[in-house]
Amino acid sequence: MKHYLSAGDLSRPDAEALLQRAQALKVEWKHDGHPELLLRGKTLALVFEKPSLRTRVAFEAGMTQLGGHGSYLSANDIDMGGRESVPDVARNLSRWVQAISARVFNHATVETLARYSSVPVINALSDREHPCQALADILTLQEHFGQLQGLRLAYIGDGNNVCHSLLLLGATLGVNVRVACPFDYRPDPEILALAQQRAAESGATIAISAVPQEAVEHADAVYTDVWASMGQEHEAIRRRQVFQPYQVNTELMALAQANAVVMHCLPAHRGEEITAEIMDGPRSVVFDQAENRLHVQKALILTLLGM
Ligand code: CP
Ligand code: NVA
Fold it and tell me: How far is the CA of 162 from the centre of ligand 2 (A)?
């Protein structure tokens, strides 16, 4: 694996090895920090066209903890595609840094960066995928339930970037993923086809419906995300109406397993896609997911750098 643009870039053994590495880094960090600073002298560029809390801080803190440095470049700094073409940004950065993480509007931008970069490129969220998030989510499930094979994950809401990466990584690792979303907001058919193929190989199942109650029934984990993603703010009012029946609340959670966990990639809008009661309740693992961003992103950088 040269770059990590999609959760589908990981084979099952690659994904398992990466999660194991993340878990080991987590344990090591909690005990002694990292005695061996594997990324000493190395720099990760963070090219971000959109805001971020978790992804940015997890990359920057992760680099620092491993002895390296994260260099953050906002849209204001480099205006990718405006001040300078995407290929030229990639060619320049490749001369100074050891890896590039990029948060972009169009998925094609991370693909172009990867095409012209001689160093690994990581998708830090695009309109199509959020593959770093999916790694943290799956690690959280593995820690919580002890195993992934056969777990039932219900994703409720918009068939968006977060949903796409979860479908791909979940299916690869044997997690049964049931998505409930309004008809016009279903996941991309190409992603679904790949997820189905991965599920056939791993023994998992994938199901899409418009009925949240159906998806949540007997689920071990119930996941939701904002109804309007970054860049879709102008659609927020319409989306609030369409997605209202897809709110994750106490009533819906009552249909899941008694020990089911609630997941959200954050930031969350309490009172919209999730009620405050559920988000802040005892079943919520949202801050474990957030913490795990750190551990998986460190594992990812080390893996991509062949370390
Ligand atoms: N979940 C997530 O990616 O958060 P940020 O947008 O704050 O990075
Ligand atoms: N789907 C959301 C995820 C934010 C982490 C977005 O793209 O804005």
Answer: 7
